[in-house]
Description:
There is one protein chain. This protein is α/β, with parallel strands linked by helices. 31% of the residues lie in helices and 29% in strands. The chain has helices spanning 44-51, 73-77, 95-103, 114-119, 135-146, 165-181, 192-198, 216-223, 250-258, 273-281; strands spanning 6-15, 18-28, 33-37, 59-64, 67-68, 80-83, 153-157, 184-189, 201-206, 209-214, 227-234, 237-244, 263-268. The strands form 3 sheets. Strands 6-7-8-3-9-10 form a 6-stranded mixed sheet, sandwiched between helices. The longest helix has 17 residues, at 165-181.
Amino acid sequence: xxxxxxxxxxxxxxxxxxxxxxxxxxxxxxxxxxxxxxxxxxxxxxxxxxxxxxxxxxxxxxxxxxxxxxxxxxxxxxxxxxxxxxxxxxxxxxxxxxxxxxxxxxxxxxxxxxxxxxxxxxxxxxxxxxxxxxxxxxxxxxxxxxxxxxxxxxxxxxxxxxxxxxxxxxxxxxxxxxxxxxxxxxxxxxxxxxxxxxxxxxxxxxxxxxxxxxxxxxxxxxxxxxxxxxxxxxxxxxxxxxxxxxxxxxxxxxxxxxxxxxxxxxxxxxxxxxxxxxxxxxxxxx
Length: 286
């Protein structure tokens, strides 16, 4: 197995008497998207700030790309892309100028922002001031900025929060492309549907503690109900048949249920990530 791109071991961080991160450990492989999930105030953003070198954890250890963080912070940051929830664009600059300015932080002489502007769908507005961009356009520019140095580790804090479906889908596609290129991606969000669509694995965090870490599919299989619901129309009425999959005659019952003339829908009873989080944490995401 390849060495993890990110290795976090038992890190802790407190703001005064409030413990924001409490003994958190996990790995992220190259090319993997890890959804770091929890409600506001759960410790997600603090963990990201520790991994990106903005905060130093007083206990625990961490390596990124095989180097010690924060000991080798400057070297690691040259291969890191970061997109925080707070927008910190230069609004009086054009979108193109924002990317050119940021490229200088990586000593990228001769950087051409146009291909990246085209990739995020802002090429036609590349010379407009960022102040004139919509919220979705600014977010796409923030994401584009995190891709400038073709990072091998990518940290995205609520990258689609509050965006319209079209902008959200465009950003999800770009994140998946970065992972396919080989980047290790840590995605923090309180949107479980977002995480389900994007993540290879998800980690639940609540009150600073990591509750569980697994693939969305494994979590749903372990915590969902193994049954099929078949809905059919019978005259003016709608009937619903529930068939437990663990019953010995489940196959025959499903074939009979779907053979009726008024068949409407058939689906498995699958737990959502929100359901599973509540089971672990005893609370919802709000």
